[in-house]
Description:
It is a single chain. The chain is of the alpha/beta class and 262 residues long. The protein has a six-stranded mixed beta sheet with strand order 6-7-8-3-9-10, sandwiched between helices. A four-stranded antiparallel beta sheet has the order 2-1-4-5, with helices on one face. The longest helix is centred in the last third of the chain and has 18 residues, at 172-189. A hairpin with a 2-residue loop joins strand 4 (58-63) and strand 5. It has nine helices and ten strands. It has a domain at 1-72 and 197-253: 3-Layer(aba) Sandwich (Rossmann fold). The chain is globular, with a radius of gyration of 19 Å. The chain has helices at residues 43-50, 90-95, 104-108, 114-126, 142-155, 172-189, 200-206, 229-237, 241-253; strands spanning 4-13, 17-27, 32-36, 58-63, 66-67, 75-78, 160-164, 192-196, 209-214, 217-222. GO terms for molecular function: ATP binding. InterPro entries: AAA+_ATPase, ABC_transporter-like_ATP-bd, ABC_transporter-like_CS, ABC_transpr_PhnC, MetN_ABC_transporter-like, P-loop_NTPase. Pfam families: ABC_tran.
Amino acid sequence: MPAVSLDNVTKIYGRDTVALEDISFEIPEGEFVVLLGPSGAGKSTMLRVLNGLTQPTEGEVIINEKPVGGERSEVGMVFQMHYLIESMSAFRNALTGALSRSNFAQSALTMYPDEDKRAALEALETVGLLDEAGQRAGSMSGGQKQRVGIARALVQDPDLLLADEPVSSLDPKAAKDVMRYMKEAAKERNLTTVASLHQVNIAREFGDRFLGVRDGELIFDGDREDLTMDVVDQIYYGDDEAAKERAENLATTAPERGEDDE
């Protein structure tokens, strides 16, 4: 059985705004999948459907043979904005991933079982931040904060990890570091992962499989070898030759980033 299955999923907002249209695919356990597509294509809606925050208008989402809905502790989420409590340490922020397993009194008193504390330290080690466990989150770099966000999701011990544009606000080096740690964590735990990305070069470097979404439709499903520039153009520009030409001109005239730009 696949770890994740979407069966003819459609999501319509209001009367006629189609965010997703008749999408079906399966993801085997441990696969690292990257969603590609322009803004407004439906990537975020797809992630929200996968984590149960949005119910599909039609179709069904299955994770580990269970329909998505209600309790979602089996799905971990890494956000574009890390949403850390900046006054708390990296360790305390990572530990909040165990909240779904703690009762209210324990959470209010920040009393966690030793096994949760060990899980938080192990997750921070996985993302290369064990030595910074006591550092206040507010004093960390953007890339470090995002890695704490990954650690927090890992502490949740999910069956599925979702990431919504996790590196869009980072410079290229920090973005690659975050993706490398996320990919290593997924491989180490055989964790099925779906991440939406805008940066095609980073996507190609870290993805095992790529799903291209445009206007709410799944128009591409393939591996790295299948993801040619013609396919990328189709995903992002469709048949809009003028937009494609503007993008190519911008790419050729944009200045190179130097170390001082990062």
